[in-house]
Design a protein that fits this description.
It is built from five helices and four strands. By secondary structure, the chain is of the alpha/beta class. It has a four-stranded parallel sheet with strand order 1-2-3-4, with helices on both faces. Helix 3 packs across helix 4. The protein is globular, with a radius of gyration of 14 Å.
């Protein structure tokens, strides 16, 4: 019902392009999604800028056409650069219809996903 994308080490924009391409290759799986979590806690550095982020949003729009409306997407990033990029991405991706939030920890992101899954889709992860 969801996907968790664990990111590690140094990251470049191609990492996101590659992940999105693999998601796009499995539309049947995307239709099952109710949430996604991008975990940036183990990322050591990010060589990504605003132009790159806007290109990722184009791929995200394609993914969103295959998903149920209102998929929840949380990003967890304790580091300032990743947190700022995730907030910027969240503002840009609003047009695709996802509900996004950015957090400093995975625990906060998971708690938000769990709460919103219950409220929005009637899904109780604790009893799944």
């Amino acid at each position: 019902m969801g996907v968790i994308y664990h990111c590690r080490g140094p990251m470049v924009i191609e990492d996101f392009f590659s992940a999105n391409a693999s998601f796009l290759a499995t539309p049947d799986e995307i239709r099952k999604w109710r949430y996604a979590l991008i975990d940036l806690t183990a990322v050591e550095s990010m060589d990504i800028d605003y132009t790159d982020v806007s290109r990722v949003v184009t791929q995200n729009a394609s993914i969103a056409t295959m998903a149920v409306p209102g998929v929840l997407l949380a990003v967890a990033s304790p580091r300032d650069h990743g947190f700022a990029l995730a907030r910027m991405w969240g503002a840009l991706v609003e047009r695709v219809g996802w509900e996004t939030m950015t957090f400093r920890s995975v625990g906060q992101a998971e708690a938000w996903i769990e709460k919103r899954l219950q409220e929005k889709f009637g899904i109780d992860l604790a009893n799944s």
